[in-house]
Amino acid sequence: SPDIFEFAARGGKLLLAHGLQDVLVSTRATEDYYERLLQIFGGIDNVASFVRYYEVPGFGHAVSSQFNATWDSLTALEQWAEGGVAPANQVTVDTVGVPGRSRPLCDYPKWARYNGTGDVNAAASFTCVYP
After folding, report:
1. Is residue 86 a contact partner of residue 97, using CB atoms and an 8 Å limit?
2. Distant-in-sequence, close-in-space partners of 5: CB < 8 Å, separation ≥ 6
3. 17, 56 in Cβ contact below 8 A?
4. d(CA 90, CA 118)
5. What average pLDDT does range 16-33 have in this prediction?
6. Which pLDDT score, from 0 to 100, does residue 66 have?
7. Each residue's pLDDT tens digit, 59-84
8. Alpha-carbon distances, residue 48 vs 20, 52, 89, 121 (angstroms)
């Protein structure tokens, strides 16, 4: 249920991440949940005060042989919930497909677009853009 008003009112923070290669749970389910949050909370400005949603290209359900995304989400959540510092410029690093390859985690609905120059395995070579 997107009825998480009490959670938000108590200062709760929610990080959502979904692998775009997840064959068990469709990303559409998470996208739909996020869109319903936007509707009932009155838009992105209100939702962004307590929710971040990232879609991770190449990542499957919990693990992947193409892109095993690692990200220190606990530190990001701790800094946000306890220190008031919202996640920004988050990066995920692959440990399986191309170990060390990194990508930016873009606030949904943005996605990581290659800049056209630079190392294709480095997050710095990508920019988060709207579709």
Report:
1. no
2. none
3. yes
4. 19
5. 93
6. 85
7. 888 777 888 889 999 999 999 999 99
8. 21, 6, 15, 29
